[in-house]
Design goal:
The chain has four helices and six strands; from the N terminus they run H-E-E-E-E-H-E-E-H-H. The protein is α+β, with helices and mostly antiparallel strands and 185 residues long. It folds into two domains: 102 residues, Ribosome-recycling factor (Topoisomerase I, Chain A, domain 4, Orthogonal Bundle), CATH 1.10.132.20; 68 residues, Gyrase A, domain 2 (2-Layer Sandwich). The strands form two sheets. The chain has a four-stranded antiparallel beta sheet with strand order 3-4-6-5, covered by helices on one side. A two-stranded antiparallel ribbon has the order 1-2. Strand 3 and strand 4 form a beta hairpin.
Length: 185
């Protein structure tokens, strides 16, 4: 019983850490990275479609992204989505592809991005703590139904707390790396 709860909560905590990592990849650092725009949703024939499913995205230079759509008629839609996004980038459309110049980040923008990273990391911590709460509730329910003993409940509670501490530390590490990457000139 306890092992099942621990296994499930571990999987869900790992998923939370992965979601944070993917989310932080979309935050601009000053270097061109396809991850910056690949999850951008583009309205394409009335459907919101991720950009990476309708175009190839390359970074031929450290400060340049090139987006080459498979369907050239989608260029205006992609351009519109880029302008609406909070990336602050101006697309250059030459009729066949879109070029995005990644400007150097100002100190003020870097600090703003660090605050954004901190906010996302805190949201991930809250998600981890909510998973801990749910796991503890499951253990309490098992104890009330006499499926596990009180000692097993406390052992399970300690194991869930150890897992929580491990993943909070992992999430903090992900956040610190991203903050250092954003502040790097």
């Amino acid at each position: 019983m306890i092992d099942d709860v621990l296994g499930e909560v571990r999987q869900r905590m790992e998923k939370s850490a992965e979601v944070l990592q993917d989310d932080l990849m979309g935050i601009r650092t000053g270097r061109a990275s396809p991850a910056l725009v690949e999850k951008l949703l583009v309205e394409y024939y009335g459907t919101l479609t991720p950009l990476n499913q309708m175009a190839s995205i390359a970074a031929p230079a450290p400060r340049l992204l090139v987006i080459r759509p498979w369907d050239v008629s989608a260029l205006p839609d992609i351009e519109r989505a880029l302008l609406k996004s909070d990336l602050g980038l101006t697309p250059m459309n030459d009729g066949k592809l879109i070029r995005l110049n990644i400007p150097r980040l100002t100190e003020e923008r870097r600090r703003e991005l660090v605050r954004l990273v901190s906010r996302r990391v805190e949201e991930a911590r809250v998600a981890i703590r909510n998973l801990r709460r749910d796991a503890l509730q499951d253990l309490r329910d098992f104890e009330k139904e006499k499926m596990i003993s009180e000692d097993d409940f406390f052992r399970g509670k300690d194991a869930v707390q150890d897992l929580t501490d491990e993943f909070i530390e992992k999430i903090d590490g992900i956040g610190k790396r991203k903050e250092a990457e954003v502040m790097e000139i």
